[in-house]
Amino acid sequence: MEEIAAPIPPAELTVTSPEQMRQLGRRLAKLLRAGDLVLLSGELGAGKTTLTRGLGEGLGVRGAVTSPTFVIARVHPSLGDGPPLVHVDAYRLGGGLDEMEDLDLDVSLPESVIVVEWGEGKVEELTDDRLHVVIHRAVGDTTDEVRHVTLTGIGERWAAVDLSVLSA
Ligand SMILES: Nc1ncnc2c1ncn2[C@@H]1O[C@H](COP(=O)(O)OP(=O)(O)O)[C@@H](O)[C@H]1O
Ligand SMILES: [Mg+2]
Known about the structure:
Distance between the termini: 35 Å
Largest sheet: 7 strands, mixed
Low-confidence stretches: none
Number of helices: 3
CATH topology: Rossmann fold
CATH superfamily: P-loop containing nucleotide triphosphate hydrolases
Strand order of the largest sheet: 1-7-6-2-5-4-3
Radius of gyration: 16 Å
Structural class: alpha/beta
CATH class: Alpha Beta
CATH architecture: 3-Layer(aba) Sandwich
Bound molecules: adenosine-5'-diphosphate, magnesium ion
Number of domains: 1
Number of strands: 7
């Protein structure tokens, strides 16, 4: 009888401070390699850029990850021999890859890790595989630092990756 592996379920984590969000990014970086696309969803102030900052630290890239005011994408080259981090903030962009054509993300993807904030519905055409990270902040209390993070691997690339290691 043929065995069909059950798909790896999404990982659900609770993060209770900005520093923990950065740590999550540093751990996630260990799972990433060139060619990976990571989509970050969550409202303004959810912690997408904070997570990306940790990713940049974990990947060992040059320059601190910040929220770009005018720049849509920033390339952070590796300080070692790892892949560069391409950080895209698609907040001001409309739908579809066409709007981002100038960024040539398709050209850089094979040798880079690309992280896109607000990328839903805009960059999925780049590849069949992606890691979708959704960050929810607890509703109501605006001073609350609790965030719920769901990570879902989509496509063959993520089929056998156990995301539960991130909860450690
Ligand atoms: N658990 C948390 N994770 C991430 N950021 C948090 C958390 N708690 C509070 N914050 C604060 O929320 C803000 C998140 O900002 P940012 O990462 O730029 O969000 P986004 O990119 O999603 O708009 C920062 O000011 C950060 O200090
Ligand atoms: Mg941001």
